[in-house]
Amino acid sequence: MTDWKKVQGSQIEKPQEFDTTTSAVIVYQRRNIQRVKVTNPDGTTTELWEYEEREMTREEYAIVVAESQQEQIDQIRADIDYISAVAEIEL
Q1: Residues with Cβ < 8 Å from 40, sequence gap 6 or more?
Q2: Sheet containing 18-19: which strands, arranged edge to edge?
Q3: With 43 labelled, which of 13, 71, 73, 78 sits at a CA distance of 20 to 30 A?
Q4: Which residues contact 81 (CB under 8 A, 6 or more apart)?
Q5: pLDDT single digits (tens) 35-88
């Protein structure tokens, strides 16, 4: 997995957090995606996407996705435990 680097892109639509289609080998992960206006040398402006991006292998991507899913499961379980405690329901 590479380090995060700042990137600008001219995509029409907002880039996805994970890009699994551009490359058969590399997955691009993006964060802090925002629309910015850049002034060109001729004085005109162009709207671009600016974001941080890193590259990872498909194997690293699978690990990142699995960790994210586990975090979601843990949060849902904590929510269920809290609701059952507040409602005084034994599970």
Answers
A1: 46
A2: 5-9, 45-57, 26-39, 18-19
A3: 13
A4: 91
A5: 999 999 999 999 999 999 999 999 999 999 999 899 899 999 999 989 988 988
